[in-house]
Amino acid sequence: MSGITDAIKGRTSANNFDTTHVMSDAEIHELVALTNETPTSFNMQNYRVIAVKSPEKKAALKAAAYNQPKVSEAAVTFAIIGKMKGNEALPALIKPMLDAGALDQAAFDGWIGMCNGMYAGNQAFQRDEAIRSGSLAAMTLMYAAHDMGLVSGAMIGFDPAAVAKELHLSEDEIPVMLIAVGKAAEGLSSTAEVELKEIDHPAITTLLLYREKEKRVTTYGTTFLQNIHPKTGRIHSTFSQLYTDTGRYSSNNP
């Protein structure tokens, strides 16, 4: 198998980390540099990666992530941050190509014009794209970590407002995902579903059932409650008639 196939088939989600393991700054920079190879719409690069490595900062981030142990136990917890208004940053990003002669002025103007035509003034679509880009970057980071001999565990269970405050995010930034990265704790196997099903123990069935129910509650229960309007007591979702590949309606919030 190729290295990419090995990563896709070999990577599992980690929950237990070696608390003595420390990632060097060089390793962190390499992992972030590989993550930044992630493709984005119009090359807007509408995300950024924050590496949280100090015990104090990880403890504060853990509190914002409902006290999930791996946030503080992993060597580094990376925050993937989506950025709104990516179209506004595009001219500065691609101007070096214009200056180097790789683009002529017409191509430069056309590139920016098409991007603005799709995203300018459309906050819902900007948010969708920020989350899409952040999610792609998160997967790149996890595969790159696997290739470096590290394990990772992604989390969407966190208080977005608390994470934004802790990481000093701007109003145009969205916390998309937290990813714990480090060395696996010795003597502990993966808790991925495919591996748990290989264990002949009555507790496994109960555990997998609990996971299924817990995912439903966190995805469709508590998340929906956060979107109840304080005055009407109802959920007022934002619907889009365009932008899905299948032509179906899409919505956000929720």
Quick tags:
6 strands, four-stranded antiparallel beta sheet, two-stranded antiparallel sheet, alpha+beta, single chain, 254 residues
Describe this structure in words.
There is one protein chain. The chain is α+β, with helices and mostly antiparallel strands and about 250 residues long. Helices cover about 50% and strands about 15% of the residues. It has 10 helices and 6 strands; from the N terminus they run ααβααβαααβαβααββ. The chain has helices spanning about 5-10, 25-35, 55-65, 70-75, 85-100, 105-120, 125-145, 160-165, 195, 200-225; strands at about 45-50, 75-85, 150-155, 175-180, 240, 250. The protein has a 4-stranded antiparallel sheet, sandwiched between helices. It has a two-stranded antiparallel sheet with strand order 5-6. The longest helix has 25 residues, at about 125-145. The model has no long low-confidence stretch (mean pLDDT about 90).
